[in-house]
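I'm curious: can you give me some protein's one-letter sequence along with its backbone structure tokens because I've never seen that pairing?
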Amino acid sequence: MLRKTLLISMVVTFPLGAMAQPVPLTGLYVGAGFGANDMMNEHFVNSTGTATHASLESRVGMIGVTSVGYALPMGLRFELEGAFRSNEFTHGRDFGFAAGAGGVEKKYGPMFNVLYDLSSFLPPTAFAPYVGVGVGYQWAKLTNFYLVGGSGFPLVRSNDRRSAIAYQAIFGGAMPIGGVPGLAMTLEYRFMGMGSRDYDVATTLAPGARTTFGKIRFGNDFNHALLIGVRYNFNQPPPPPAPAPVSAPAPAPARSYLVFFDWDKATLTDRSRQIIKEAADNSTRVQVTRIEVNGYTDTSGTPRYNQGLSVRRARAVQAELVRDGVSQDVISIQGFGDTHLLVPTGAGVREPQNRRVEIILH
């Protein structure tokens, strides 16, 4: 019950104020998080390599994570992470006697993660979810570890450190902080596992008895964690300027370009790249302060799917504009799904003129 209370309380206290609509991650970012780590019972492994019933229980401990990553335009991102976890042992189970235990297990090491942002597949909300997997290497250090029998005499002691391959799954989401472009709060659940390890131990069966030295093997180490953190994406464009007052002079007429897509596709054709190149070149010949990239679909899919497809099309055009020399700071993207049809149709109609992205130069 204590573990559940600690983990759930992190979710309840996650700050929800001052949030804005999410902006897709692009390029370099850094992040950090802190939270609670629940280490599952660690089983001992016998000489044949089989896990025994004997195991160690521990208290909910802490976890800290720092990371640096790079996000691609289509939602895929890569991340290098450094993590630290710490849990205190409390007692043993299924030893055949009343076993007590103490000491701390500290785990730390690097992980390489691959993550994917799910925002383009979901309706627009302030919470931008993502999923990921990771692999890496972790060290597990026993600090003042001991195992005692019914008499309270320490039978086994160790201060050894061992390492093993580790892996993890990540489920999380980000909420932008209004007024600070690129800054967001994050909430994550992580499951991490690492392989078995052999530790050097000192064994003394009774007071005054001879101490012998040997090894014990801990089985797989499984951990559940909840973290609250912050993330900062470099080179994010500033918030759009406030609308001009009514009395202001009329702005110069905007120039627009239409890029069309094949059915159910977000990939660019050679003709599409020519149009985007023309828009990019013209943006350097006139005084352009802002470029809108708006994605649309026909009505042949569900509204939720069409919303995500329109965002993916807009991101593809944005990435091509950047490749053609346009600064990403002046580009804003938005998906409108199957709304604002160029050719009005009923539901379920594959209309080529509606499968488009509009580039507007302001």
Q: What stands out?
A: Confidence is low (pLDDT under 50) at residues 4-19. The first strand starts at residue 27 and ends at 39. Residues 124 and 221 are 38 Å apart (CA to CA). The chain has two domains: 2-233, 255-361.
